[in-house]
Amino acid sequence: MAKLGTHNKPIRVRVQNEERMVEVASICEKNKWIFICGLEPDKPEDISDLDYMLNPRRSMERNRK
User: Fold this and answer.
1) What is the pLDDT of residue 1?
2) ∠ CA 30-19-2 to the nearest 5 degrees?
3) For 30-41, what is the mean pLDDT?
4) What are the distances in angstroms from CA 61 to CA 39, 46, 50, 53, 65?
5) How far apart are alpha carbons 48 and 61 in whole angstroms?
6) Which of 10, 12, 41, 52 lies in disulfide reach of 34, CB 3.0 to 4.6 Å?
7) Banded model confidence at residue 20, pLDDT cuts 50, 70, 90
8) Strands (E) located in the chain
9) Quick one: which of 35, 43, 25, 42 has its CA closest to 4?
């Protein structure tokens, strides 16, 4: 299974505005993570993959409940 944040399994996020897209891109580039970011103002933001990468233990605890 490919590791999240690599070419085989990029981080996928959806944001509603360009400012947020720049913020997400900056975080991913700083950590050398491969990502795909969709700008979709009519859909809810989804940064769950990024949240997992930034806080893996918290995400795992949340999934256990």
Assistant:
1) 79
2) 40
3) 98
4) 29, 19, 16, 14, 7
5) 14
6) 10
7) very high
8) 11-15, 35-39
9) 35
39 forms beta bridges with 15
Banded model confidence at residue 63, pLDDT cuts 50, 70, 90: low
Task: Please tell me the total number of residues recorded for the chain in this structure.
Answer: 65
Of 6, 4, 17, the C-alpha closest to 48 is 4
What is the reported pTM? Answer: 0.83
Conformational region of residue 10, where left means phi above 0, alpha means psi within -120 to 50, and beta covers everything else:
beta
Closest alpha carbon to 46 in 23, 25, 16, 18: 16
Q: And the tokens for 59?
A: 């995400």
Give the torsion through C-alpha atoms of 4, 8, 9, 13, to 10 deg: 120
Q: How far is C-alpha 49 from the geometric centre of its chain's CA atoms?
A: 4
